[in-house]
Amino acid sequence: MPNISSQQDSDTLKRVEEQINILSGILDRGRQHLRFPGRLEQRYLEFRNQRFLEIDQKIIIGGLLFYLGFSWSDFYLGGDNANLIFICRFLVTITMFCLLWWVPRSRFAAHMVTVAASGIFLAGLSVIFFIQLIPDALKYAYHLGLVPIQVFALVALRLSYRAMLVVSVSLLVCYVVMLLFSDTPPLSPELNSIVEIFMPLFVLFWLLLIGMGAYLAYAIESSARNDYMKNRLLALEAERLQYLTRRLHLLSTTDSLTGIANRRYLEECLANEWRRCLRSQTPLSLVMVDIDNFKDYNDHYGHQQGDRCLHDIAQAMASFCQRPGDLCARYGGEEFIIILPDTAPGEAAYMAEKIRESIVALAIPHETSEHLVATISVGVASMIPQADSSSDDLLRSADRMLYQAKEQGRNCVVAA
Q1: Structural domains in the chain, sorted by start
Q2: How many CB atoms within 10 Å of residue 168?
Q3: 334, 347, 353, 370: which one is catalytic?
Q4: Which of helix, strand or coil describes residue 197?
Protein backbone atom coordinates (compact mmCIF):
# COMPACT_ATOMS: atom_id res chain seq x y z
CA MET A 1 0.00 0.00 0.00
CA PRO A 2 1.49 3.38 -0.93
CA ASN A 3 2.57 5.34 2.07
CA ILE A 4 0.62 8.53 1.42
CA SER A 5 -0.44 11.05 4.01
CA SER A 6 -3.88 12.20 2.89
CA GLN A 7 -3.85 15.17 5.27
CA GLN A 8 -0.48 16.35 3.99
CA ASP A 9 -1.63 15.95 0.39
CA SER A 10 -4.82 17.88 1.15
CA ASP A 11 -2.85 20.77 2.67
CA THR A 12 -0.46 20.86 -0.29
CA LEU A 13 -3.34 20.68 -2.76
CA LYS A 14 -5.03 23.58 -0.99
CA ARG A 15 -1.89 25.71 -1.32
CA VAL A 16 -1.54 24.78 -5.00
CA GLU A 17 -5.16 25.71 -5.70
CA GLU A 18 -4.70 29.03 -3.90
CA GLN A 19 -1.75 29.84 -6.17
CA ILE A 20 -3.78 28.80 -9.22
CA ASN A 21 -6.59 31.14 -8.17
CA ILE A 22 -4.15 34.04 -7.67
CA LEU A 23 -2.54 33.56 -11.09
CA SER A 24 -5.89 33.08 -12.81
CA GLY A 25 -7.17 36.27 -11.18
CA ILE A 26 -4.14 38.25 -12.40
CA LEU A 27 -4.53 36.90 -15.94
CA ASP A 28 -8.27 37.64 -15.93
CA ARG A 29 -7.65 41.27 -14.95
CA GLY A 30 -5.55 41.68 -18.08
CA ARG A 31 -3.86 44.99 -17.25
CA GLN A 32 -0.93 44.91 -14.90
CA HIS A 33 1.55 47.39 -13.50
CA LEU A 34 4.62 45.20 -14.02
CA ARG A 35 4.52 43.97 -10.47
CA PHE A 36 3.06 40.81 -9.00
CA PRO A 37 1.67 40.58 -5.47
CA GLY A 38 3.94 39.41 -2.65
CA ARG A 39 5.95 36.25 -3.01
CA LEU A 40 5.01 35.85 -6.69
CA GLU A 41 7.03 38.96 -7.59
CA GLN A 42 10.08 37.56 -5.83
CA ARG A 43 9.75 34.26 -7.70
CA TYR A 44 9.44 36.10 -11.01
CA LEU A 45 12.53 38.21 -10.31
CA GLU A 46 14.47 35.04 -9.51
CA PHE A 47 13.28 33.54 -12.81
CA ARG A 48 14.15 36.72 -14.74
CA ASN A 49 17.58 36.89 -13.14
CA GLN A 50 18.26 33.26 -14.05
CA ARG A 51 17.22 33.94 -17.63
CA PHE A 52 19.45 37.02 -17.68
CA LEU A 53 22.41 34.93 -16.52
CA GLU A 54 21.74 32.31 -19.20
CA ILE A 55 20.99 34.57 -22.19
CA ASP A 56 21.40 38.31 -21.69
CA GLN A 57 24.81 38.00 -20.08
CA LYS A 58 26.13 37.09 -23.54
CA ILE A 59 24.53 40.24 -24.95
CA ILE A 60 26.34 42.29 -22.29
CA ILE A 61 29.64 40.65 -23.24
CA GLY A 62 29.02 41.47 -26.91
CA GLY A 63 28.16 45.05 -25.98
CA LEU A 64 31.37 45.43 -23.98
CA LEU A 65 33.43 44.18 -26.91
CA PHE A 66 31.61 46.65 -29.17
CA TYR A 67 32.27 49.42 -26.63
CA LEU A 68 35.97 48.51 -26.53
CA GLY A 69 36.10 48.25 -30.32
CA PHE A 70 35.00 51.87 -30.54
CA SER A 71 38.42 52.82 -29.19
CA TRP A 72 39.48 53.54 -32.79
CA SER A 73 37.51 56.77 -32.45
CA ASP A 74 39.55 57.66 -29.37
CA PHE A 75 42.74 57.75 -31.43
CA TYR A 76 41.05 59.28 -34.46
CA LEU A 77 39.31 62.10 -32.58
CA GLY A 78 41.05 62.24 -29.21
CA GLY A 79 44.06 64.34 -30.11
CA ASP A 80 46.45 64.77 -27.19
CA ASN A 81 44.02 63.00 -24.83
CA ALA A 82 43.65 59.91 -27.03
CA ASN A 83 45.74 57.68 -24.77
CA LEU A 84 43.90 58.85 -21.64
CA ILE A 85 40.52 58.23 -23.26
CA PHE A 86 41.58 54.76 -24.39
CA ILE A 87 42.91 53.86 -20.93
CA CYS A 88 39.63 54.97 -19.32
CA ARG A 89 37.62 52.99 -21.88
CA PHE A 90 39.81 49.94 -21.30
CA LEU A 91 39.44 50.19 -17.50
CA VAL A 92 35.64 50.45 -17.78
CA THR A 93 35.61 47.36 -20.01
CA ILE A 94 37.89 45.32 -17.74
CA THR A 95 35.88 46.35 -14.66
CA MET A 96 32.63 45.21 -16.26
CA PHE A 97 34.14 41.92 -17.43
CA CYS A 98 35.34 41.25 -13.87
CA LEU A 99 31.89 42.02 -12.48
CA LEU A 100 30.24 39.77 -15.07
CA TRP A 101 32.48 36.93 -13.96
CA TRP A 102 32.30 37.56 -10.19
CA VAL A 103 28.73 38.66 -9.49
CA PRO A 104 26.99 35.43 -10.70
CA ARG A 105 29.29 33.46 -8.38
CA SER A 106 28.75 35.73 -5.38
CA ARG A 107 25.89 36.44 -3.00
CA PHE A 108 24.98 39.38 -5.26
CA ALA A 109 23.91 37.09 -8.10
CA ALA A 110 20.26 38.00 -7.49
CA HIS A 111 21.13 41.63 -8.38
CA MET A 112 22.71 40.88 -11.76
CA VAL A 113 20.21 43.06 -13.65
CA THR A 114 21.02 46.00 -11.37
CA VAL A 115 24.75 45.44 -11.92
CA ALA A 116 24.22 45.33 -15.70
CA ALA A 117 22.16 48.52 -15.60
CA SER A 118 24.85 50.25 -13.54
CA GLY A 119 27.50 49.09 -16.03
CA ILE A 120 25.56 50.46 -19.00
CA PHE A 121 25.10 53.76 -17.18
CA LEU A 122 28.84 53.85 -16.41
CA ALA A 123 29.65 53.23 -20.07
CA GLY A 124 27.34 56.05 -21.14
CA LEU A 125 28.75 58.36 -18.48
CA SER A 126 32.26 57.59 -19.70
CA VAL A 127 31.31 58.71 -23.22
CA ILE A 128 29.95 61.98 -21.81
CA PHE A 129 33.25 62.40 -19.95
CA PHE A 130 35.25 61.62 -23.10
CA ILE A 131 33.38 64.38 -24.96
CA GLN A 132 35.00 66.88 -22.59
CA LEU A 133 38.45 65.57 -23.53
CA ILE A 134 37.99 65.69 -27.31
CA PRO A 135 39.45 68.72 -29.13
CA ASP A 136 36.84 71.40 -29.75
CA ALA A 137 36.92 71.06 -33.52
CA LEU A 138 35.98 67.35 -33.34
CA LYS A 139 33.92 67.32 -30.16
CA TYR A 140 30.47 67.17 -31.74
CA ALA A 141 31.27 64.11 -33.81
CA TYR A 142 31.81 62.22 -30.55
CA HIS A 143 28.27 62.98 -29.37
CA LEU A 144 27.02 60.30 -31.75
CA GLY A 145 28.78 57.70 -29.60
CA LEU A 146 25.89 58.00 -27.15
CA VAL A 147 23.43 56.58 -29.68
CA PRO A 148 24.75 52.97 -29.61
CA ILE A 149 24.93 53.18 -25.80
CA GLN A 150 21.23 54.07 -25.68
CA VAL A 151 20.30 51.39 -28.21
CA PHE A 152 22.28 48.83 -26.24
CA ALA A 153 20.42 49.83 -23.05
CA LEU A 154 17.13 49.16 -24.85
CA VAL A 155 18.30 45.71 -25.96
CA ALA A 156 20.14 44.50 -22.86
CA LEU A 157 17.52 45.73 -20.37
CA ARG A 158 14.43 44.85 -22.44
CA LEU A 159 13.10 42.52 -19.71
CA SER A 160 13.30 45.23 -17.05
CA TYR A 161 11.23 48.24 -18.04
CA ARG A 162 12.14 50.22 -14.93
CA ALA A 163 15.89 49.57 -15.19
CA MET A 164 15.91 50.56 -18.87
CA LEU A 165 13.95 53.75 -18.18
CA VAL A 166 16.11 54.77 -15.20
CA VAL A 167 19.38 54.24 -17.11
CA SER A 168 18.13 56.02 -20.25
CA VAL A 169 16.67 59.05 -18.47
CA SER A 170 19.69 59.34 -16.17
CA LEU A 171 22.08 59.39 -19.14
CA LEU A 172 19.96 61.98 -20.93
CA VAL A 173 19.87 64.20 -17.83
CA CYS A 174 23.66 63.93 -17.45
CA TYR A 175 24.07 64.81 -21.13
CA VAL A 176 21.80 67.85 -20.88
CA VAL A 177 23.62 69.02 -17.73
CA MET A 178 26.90 68.71 -19.63
CA LEU A 179 25.51 70.83 -22.47
CA LEU A 180 24.26 73.50 -20.08
CA PHE A 181 27.44 73.83 -18.05
CA SER A 182 30.11 73.31 -20.70
CA ASP A 183 31.46 76.11 -22.86
CA THR A 184 30.47 76.04 -26.51
CA PRO A 185 33.65 75.99 -28.59
CA PRO A 186 33.86 78.85 -31.10
CA LEU A 187 33.39 77.62 -34.65
CA SER A 188 32.69 79.22 -37.98
CA PRO A 189 29.34 81.02 -38.25
CA GLU A 190 27.96 78.28 -40.50
CA LEU A 191 28.98 75.51 -38.09
CA ASN A 192 27.70 77.46 -35.08
CA SER A 193 24.25 77.72 -36.66
CA ILE A 194 24.31 73.99 -37.48
CA VAL A 195 25.28 73.16 -33.89
CA GLU A 196 22.50 75.37 -32.52
CA ILE A 197 20.03 73.34 -34.55
CA PHE A 198 21.73 69.97 -34.07
CA MET A 199 21.91 69.91 -30.28
CA PRO A 200 18.17 70.45 -29.54
CA LEU A 201 17.29 68.00 -32.31
CA PHE A 202 19.73 65.46 -30.89
CA VAL A 203 18.13 65.77 -27.44
CA LEU A 204 14.66 65.49 -29.01
CA PHE A 205 15.78 62.45 -31.01
CA TRP A 206 17.10 60.90 -27.82
CA LEU A 207 13.81 61.57 -26.03
CA LEU A 208 11.88 59.94 -28.87
CA LEU A 209 14.26 56.97 -28.77
CA ILE A 210 13.66 56.62 -25.03
CA GLY A 211 9.91 56.89 -25.55
CA MET A 212 9.85 54.18 -28.20
CA GLY A 213 12.22 52.05 -26.15
CA ALA A 214 10.06 52.47 -23.04
CA TYR A 215 6.98 51.37 -24.96
CA LEU A 216 8.78 48.32 -26.35
CA ALA A 217 10.33 47.45 -22.98
CA TYR A 218 6.92 47.73 -21.32
CA ALA A 219 5.38 45.46 -23.96
CA ILE A 220 8.25 42.96 -23.73
CA GLU A 221 8.22 42.81 -19.94
CA SER A 222 4.41 42.54 -19.90
CA SER A 223 4.62 39.66 -22.36
CA ALA A 224 7.41 38.01 -20.35
CA ARG A 225 5.38 38.29 -17.16
CA ASN A 226 2.29 36.87 -18.88
CA ASP A 227 4.33 33.98 -20.27
CA TYR A 228 5.76 33.35 -16.81
CA MET A 229 2.29 33.28 -15.27
CA LYS A 230 0.96 30.95 -17.95
CA ASN A 231 3.91 28.58 -17.61
CA ARG A 232 3.62 28.73 -13.83
CA LEU A 233 -0.11 28.06 -14.13
CA LEU A 234 0.55 25.02 -16.33
CA ALA A 235 3.09 23.70 -13.82
CA LEU A 236 0.65 24.19 -10.94
CA GLU A 237 -2.16 22.52 -12.88
CA ALA A 238 0.14 19.55 -13.52
CA GLU A 239 1.01 19.43 -9.82
CA ARG A 240 -2.67 19.68 -8.91
CA LEU A 241 -3.48 16.84 -11.30
CA GLN A 242 -0.74 14.76 -9.71
CA TYR A 243 -2.19 15.27 -6.23
CA LEU A 244 -5.72 14.57 -7.44
CA THR A 245 -4.50 11.36 -9.08
CA ARG A 246 -2.84 10.32 -5.85
CA ARG A 247 -6.00 11.13 -3.91
CA LEU A 248 -8.12 9.14 -6.35
CA HIS A 249 -5.72 6.21 -6.05
CA LEU A 250 -5.86 6.51 -2.27
CA LEU A 251 -9.66 6.55 -2.27
CA SER A 252 -9.84 3.56 -4.60
CA THR A 253 -7.38 1.42 -2.61
CA THR A 254 -8.06 2.42 1.00
CA ASP A 255 -10.82 1.37 3.36
CA SER A 256 -12.28 4.65 4.59
CA LEU A 257 -13.22 3.32 8.04
CA THR A 258 -9.98 1.63 9.07
CA GLY A 259 -7.45 3.56 6.98
CA ILE A 260 -5.83 0.36 5.68
CA ALA A 261 -6.05 -1.30 2.25
CA ASN A 262 -9.46 -2.33 0.97
CA ARG A 263 -10.44 -5.66 -0.59
CA ARG A 264 -9.94 -4.43 -4.15
CA TYR A 265 -6.34 -3.46 -3.47
CA LEU A 266 -5.80 -6.66 -1.49
CA GLU A 267 -6.82 -8.80 -4.46
CA GLU A 268 -4.57 -6.79 -6.78
CA CYS A 269 -1.54 -7.12 -4.47
CA LEU A 270 -2.20 -10.79 -3.77
CA ALA A 271 -2.24 -11.55 -7.51
CA ASN A 272 1.02 -9.64 -7.99
CA GLU A 273 2.75 -11.33 -5.06
CA TRP A 274 1.50 -14.74 -6.20
CA ARG A 275 3.08 -14.24 -9.64
CA ARG A 276 6.31 -12.93 -8.14
CA CYS A 277 6.62 -15.85 -5.70
CA LEU A 278 5.76 -18.25 -8.53
CA ARG A 279 8.73 -16.97 -10.50
CA SER A 280 11.11 -17.01 -7.53
CA GLN A 281 9.63 -20.18 -5.97
CA THR A 282 9.54 -18.58 -2.51
CA PRO A 283 6.78 -19.09 0.08
CA LEU A 284 3.77 -16.80 0.26
CA SER A 285 1.85 -16.68 3.55
CA LEU A 286 -1.60 -15.35 4.39
CA VAL A 287 -2.88 -14.45 7.83
CA MET A 288 -6.69 -14.32 7.99
CA VAL A 289 -8.14 -12.56 11.03
CA ASP A 290 -11.66 -12.34 12.42
CA ILE A 291 -12.68 -10.23 15.43
CA ASP A 292 -14.34 -12.53 17.95
CA ASN A 293 -18.03 -11.96 18.74
CA PHE A 294 -18.02 -8.64 16.93
CA LYS A 295 -21.79 -8.68 16.32
CA ASP A 296 -22.32 -8.90 20.07
CA TYR A 297 -19.85 -6.02 20.51
CA ASN A 298 -21.83 -3.86 18.09
CA ASP A 299 -25.14 -4.73 19.72
CA HIS A 300 -23.80 -3.93 23.18
CA TYR A 301 -21.70 -0.80 22.53
CA GLY A 302 -23.31 0.61 19.40
CA HIS A 303 -22.03 0.98 15.86
CA GLN A 304 -19.93 4.10 16.53
CA GLN A 305 -17.93 2.33 19.20
CA GLY A 306 -17.80 -0.69 16.89
CA ASP A 307 -16.26 1.43 14.17
CA ARG A 308 -13.61 2.70 16.62
CA CYS A 309 -12.87 -0.88 17.62
CA LEU A 310 -12.40 -1.89 13.98
CA HIS A 311 -10.11 1.06 13.36
CA ASP A 312 -7.91 0.46 16.42
CA ILE A 313 -7.51 -3.26 15.73
CA ALA A 314 -6.78 -2.63 12.02
CA GLN A 315 -4.09 -0.08 12.83
CA ALA A 316 -2.52 -2.38 15.41
CA MET A 317 -2.29 -5.20 12.85
CA ALA A 318 -1.00 -2.89 10.11
CA SER A 319 1.89 -1.84 12.36
CA PHE A 320 3.35 -5.34 11.92
CA CYS A 321 3.65 -4.88 8.14
CA GLN A 322 7.13 -3.42 7.98
CA ARG A 323 8.57 -4.92 4.78
CA PRO A 324 7.87 -3.56 1.28
CA GLY A 325 5.61 -6.45 0.23
CA ASP A 326 3.69 -6.82 3.51
CA LEU A 327 0.08 -5.68 3.39
CA CYS A 328 -2.77 -5.53 5.88
CA ALA A 329 -6.24 -5.15 4.34
CA ARG A 330 -9.86 -5.26 5.38
CA TYR A 331 -11.40 -8.27 3.68
CA GLY A 332 -14.98 -7.56 4.67
CA GLY A 333 -16.95 -6.74 7.81
CA GLU A 334 -14.75 -7.70 10.76
CA GLU A 335 -12.41 -9.89 8.69
CA PHE A 336 -8.87 -8.90 7.76
CA ILE A 337 -6.08 -10.46 5.72
CA ILE A 338 -2.34 -9.90 6.00
CA ILE A 339 -0.11 -10.78 3.03
CA LEU A 340 3.39 -11.92 3.98
CA PRO A 341 5.54 -12.65 0.91
CA ASP A 342 8.81 -14.57 1.24
CA THR A 343 7.66 -15.78 4.67
CA ALA A 344 7.94 -19.41 5.78
CA PRO A 345 4.99 -21.05 7.61
CA GLY A 346 6.74 -20.93 10.99
CA GLU A 347 7.57 -17.24 10.66
CA ALA A 348 4.01 -16.44 9.61
CA ALA A 349 2.56 -18.36 12.58
CA TYR A 350 4.94 -16.59 14.96
CA MET A 351 3.91 -13.18 13.61
CA ALA A 352 0.23 -14.14 13.82
CA GLU A 353 0.66 -14.99 17.50
CA LYS A 354 2.38 -11.66 18.12
CA ILE A 355 -0.51 -9.89 16.41
CA ARG A 356 -3.06 -11.78 18.53
CA GLU A 357 -1.17 -10.82 21.71
CA SER A 358 -1.01 -7.17 20.64
CA ILE A 359 -4.80 -7.06 20.17
CA VAL A 360 -5.34 -8.49 23.65
CA ALA A 361 -2.88 -5.89 24.96
CA LEU A 362 -5.07 -3.12 23.54
CA ALA A 363 -7.55 -4.07 26.27
CA ILE A 364 -10.58 -2.87 24.33
CA PRO A 365 -13.51 -3.57 26.70
CA HIS A 366 -15.88 -6.34 25.51
CA GLU A 367 -18.24 -7.27 28.34
CA THR A 368 -20.15 -9.84 26.27
CA SER A 369 -16.94 -11.81 25.64
CA GLU A 370 -15.65 -14.44 28.02
CA HIS A 371 -12.26 -12.65 27.91
CA LEU A 372 -13.87 -9.26 28.73
CA VAL A 373 -11.66 -7.62 26.07
CA ALA A 374 -11.75 -7.69 22.29
CA THR A 375 -9.87 -10.66 20.84
CA ILE A 376 -9.21 -12.15 17.43
CA SER A 377 -9.12 -15.59 15.85
CA VAL A 378 -6.36 -16.16 13.33
CA GLY A 379 -5.85 -18.65 10.51
CA VAL A 380 -2.44 -18.94 8.83
CA ALA A 381 -1.69 -20.62 5.51
CA SER A 382 1.49 -20.76 3.44
CA MET A 383 2.26 -22.04 -0.04
CA ILE A 384 5.03 -22.03 -2.59
CA PRO A 385 3.01 -21.10 -5.69
CA GLN A 386 2.87 -23.66 -8.48
CA ALA A 387 1.66 -23.41 -12.05
CA ASP A 388 -1.32 -25.70 -11.36
CA SER A 389 -2.49 -23.72 -8.30
CA SER A 390 -3.79 -20.20 -7.67
CA SER A 391 -4.06 -17.59 -4.96
CA ASP A 392 -7.64 -18.77 -4.36
CA ASP A 393 -6.21 -22.03 -3.05
CA LEU A 394 -4.17 -20.08 -0.52
CA LEU A 395 -7.21 -18.05 0.51
CA ARG A 396 -9.32 -21.17 1.01
CA SER A 397 -6.58 -22.74 3.10
CA ALA A 398 -6.32 -19.66 5.34
CA ASP A 399 -10.11 -19.58 5.65
CA ARG A 400 -10.14 -23.22 6.80
CA MET A 401 -7.49 -22.45 9.42
CA LEU A 402 -9.55 -19.50 10.65
CA TYR A 403 -12.63 -21.71 10.91
CA GLN A 404 -10.63 -24.20 13.00
CA ALA A 405 -9.44 -21.36 15.28
CA LYS A 406 -13.07 -20.44 15.94
CA GLU A 407 -13.95 -24.06 16.54
CA GLN A 408 -11.15 -24.29 19.11
CA GLY A 409 -12.69 -21.52 21.22
CA ARG A 410 -11.50 -18.33 19.50
CA ASN A 411 -8.66 -16.03 20.64
CA CYS A 412 -6.09 -18.38 19.15
CA VAL A 413 -3.92 -19.00 16.10
CA VAL A 414 -4.19 -22.07 13.87
CA ALA A 415 -1.60 -22.58 11.13
CA ALA A 416 -1.70 -25.04 8.27
Answers
A1: 6-238 (no CATH), 263-415 (3.30.70.270)
A2: 26
A3: 334
A4: helix
Q: Which of 115, 141, 143, 139 is nearest to 127 (CA)?
A: 143
CA atoms within 13 A on the CB side of 5: 6
Count CB atoms within 10 A of the CB of residue 265. 20
Tens digit of each residue's pLDDT, the chain (416 residues): 444 455 666 777 788 888 888 788 777 776 566 778 778 888 888 888 888 887 788 888 888 998 898 888 888 888 888 899 999 999 999 999 999 889 888 888 888 888 889 999 999 999 999 988 888 777 777 888 888 999 989 888 888 888 999 999 999 999 999 888 877 666 666 666 776 788 889 899 999 999 999 999 888 888 888 888 888 889 888 888 888 888 888 888 999 899 899 999 999 999 999 999 999 999 999 999 999 999 999 999 999 999 999 999 999 999 999 998 899 999 999 999 999 999 999 999 999 999 999 999 999 999 988 889 999 999 999 999 999 999 999 999 999 999 999 999 899 999 98
Instruction: Judge whether 362 and 316 are in contact, CB under 8 Å.
Output: yes
Tell me which DSSP letter residue 108 carries.
Answer: T
| Alpha helix stretches (DSSP H) within 254-302 | 263-280, 294-301
DSSP 8-state code for residue 186: P
Q: Which of 140, 124, 145, 134 is nearest to 196 (CA)?
A: 140
Q: Is 334 a catalytic residue?
A: yes
How many other CB atoms are found less than 10 A from the CB of residue 198? 14
- Strands (E) in 148-227, as ranges, are none
The Cα 98–Cα 90 span in angstroms is 12
Distance CA(56)–CA(74), nearest Å, equals 28
The per-residue DSSP string of 75-93 comes to HHH-GGGHHHHHHHHHHHH
